Amino acid sequence: MTTPRAEASRPSDTDKEAVPVPLKIAIVAADTPEAQAARRELEARYETVPLEEADVVVALGGDGLMLHTMHELLDTDKRIFGMNRGSVGFLMNEYRVEGLLERIRNAVETEIHPLHMVARTAENEVHEALAFNEVSLFRERHQAAKLKIYVDDVVRLEELVCDGLIIATPAGSTAYNLSAHGPILPLNSPLLALTPISPFRPRRWRGAILPDTVKISVEVLEAKKRPVAAVADSREYRDVVWVDVRKDPTRAARLLFDSDRPLAEKVLAEQFRYCD
Q1: Which residues are catalytic, by number?
Q2: Residue 152 forms beta bridges with which residues?
Q3: 10: DSSP letter
Q4: Start-end of CATH 2.60.200.30 domains in the chain
Q5: Of 250, 260, 266, 263, which is closest to residue 109 (Cα–Cα)?
Q6: Beta strand pairing status for 145-151 and 154-162?
């Protein structure tokens, strides 16, 4: 009599090894020789699709190209995996040809919400723009700017005489804001940095750290004599007299970073970069 064999267990649907869904990638590149050479190298190695069909956009260049791509893809829900073919490349991953698809699948996603700027000019024109790094105000001529600062419609600084003012997001706090001696903000912090550029009066005012839920308003005093320009990332409007800035939580760019070097880690490491 033969002993009945136990029926071999068959894998259920949940036991089956997951098959990676094919990634549809598109590539955008800066106009520099290094970025264009990288584009040709990747296109020879990987299958690509037109930008509108892509799940992930691989951006080759520096932080300027990344910011441009973030603005272009803001309302498309596409993810962006940047690789540095520029200079600083803080928002980029390391450039490597090998293992690109695996890096993308294992990447850590970071959502970055923009600032929404509304600027009114001396001609009563109203301009709106978004900024992922910062909104900046700059004097246009030899005389310093005179600015009055409001937070949620309450005057917090009656008169700031300076070369300009920066309102930076956590992602942008390591950029121009840091060069102007502003604070580095942890990436996931609900904060904004308000940083003066070369303040003359009050000379000892070094700025403020504010909740990212507030509205920051800047009134330009003596605007005809001391004209001021407002810049949201790369969009500039001259002769402004009033600027409102607040975070837009309803919109976000989706950036992908290597799992061993996420953006939050890069922001944290930047605070200890020059300790030696």
Answers
A1: 63
A2: none
A3: P
A4: 115-247
A5: 263
A6: antiparallel
Dist. CA 221–CA 192, nearest whole Å: 24
Give the span between the Cα atoms of 224 and 210, in whole angstroms: 30
Q: Is the pLDDT of residue 227 over 90?
A: yes
Residue limits of CATH 3.40.50.10330 in the chain: 25-113+252-270
Owner of token pair 């990212």: 212
CA-based nearest residue to 257, from 108, 125, 139, 121: 108
Q: Which CATH superfamily is domain 115-247 in?
A: Probable inorganic polyphosphate/atp-NAD kinase; domain 2 (2.60.200.30)
Split at pLDDT 50, 70, 90, the class of 218 is very high
The Cα–Cα gap between 96 and 103 comes to: 10
Instruction: Please give the DSSP secondary-structure letter assigned to residue 219.
Output: E
Whole-prediction pTM: 0.85
Would you give the DSSP letter of residue 226? S
CATH fold of the domain at 25-113+252-270: Rossmann fold (3.40.50)
In tens, the pLDDT along 48-100 reads: 999 999 999 999 999 999 999 999 999 898 999 999 998 878 899 999 999 99
Cα Dmax for the chain: 108
Q: What percent of the chain has pLDDT over 70?
A: 91
Phi, psi of 39 (to 5 degrees): -60, -45
